[in-house]
Amino acid sequence: MSNRDVVEKFYKATQSGDPAGILDALHPHFQGWVAPGMPSVTVTQAQSPEAALAGIWQPVFREYEIAPFAEEWFDAYPNTVIVTGHYRGIARATRKHVAAEFAHIWHIADEKLLALHQYTDTWHWHEALSDAA
């Protein structure tokens, strides 16, 4: 399985709202860092797959119908992939559209995702939750 296949497995799981698929894509020693100011998350640094699911992805999925969509792929070190694209979806409470850019730096080990550094435009996330017109 290529590094890109490993990352795409995660994106497909998030796009289909599949928590078991998300966990299956993550290495047992997964660590994740998300952009400071990210709404809804309860942690910005997760030290295990379960902590990432509970503190990052589940809170986001409660507030948004959203997923990352990759647009450009860059192979870095032998086991690092950088992906840029957009999160696309809506905020559940306001039904406002979200299209926030992202950059993901993925580290891969044993055909699993070992680490994620996520950068995104958090303003778009917050704006979608705002009731202001």
Strand content: 35-45%
Unreliable segments of 5+ consecutive residues: none
Helical content (DSSP H or I, runs of 4+): 25-40%
Mean of all residue-level pLDDT scores: 95
Q: Please give the radius of gyration in angstroms.
A: 14 Å
Which shape, going by the Cα principal axes? Answer: globular
How are helices and strands ordered from N to C?
A: HHEEHEEEEH
Number of helices: 4
The largest sheet is: 6 strands, mixed
Please give the alpha-carbon distance between the first and last residues. Answer: 46 Å
* Count of strand segments: 6
Spatial order of strands in the largest sheet: 2-1-6-5-4-3
Overview of the structural elements:
- With 133 residues, this protein is of the alpha+beta class.
- It has helices spanning 3-15, 19-25, 49-63, 122-129; strands at residues 26-33, 45-46, 64-75, 80-91, 97-109, 112-120.
- It has a six-stranded mixed beta sheet.
- A hairpin with a 5-residue loop joins strand 4 and strand 5 (97-109).
- The longest helix has 15 residues, at 49-63.
- The mean pLDDT is 95.
Question: How would the blueprint of this fold be written?
Answer:
Elements: H1 3-15, H2 19-25, E1 26-33, E2 45-46, H3 49-63, E3 64-75, E4 80-91, E5 97-109, E6 112-120, H4 122-129
Parallel strand pairs: 1-6
Antiparallel strand pairs: 1-2, 3-4, 4-5, 5-6
Helix pairs in contact: 1-2
In short:
By secondary structure, the protein is of the alpha+beta class. It has helices at 3-15, 19-25, 49-63, 122-129; strands at residues 26-33, 45-46, 64-75, 80-91, 97-109, 112-120. It has a six-stranded mixed sheet with strand order 2-1-6-5-4-3.
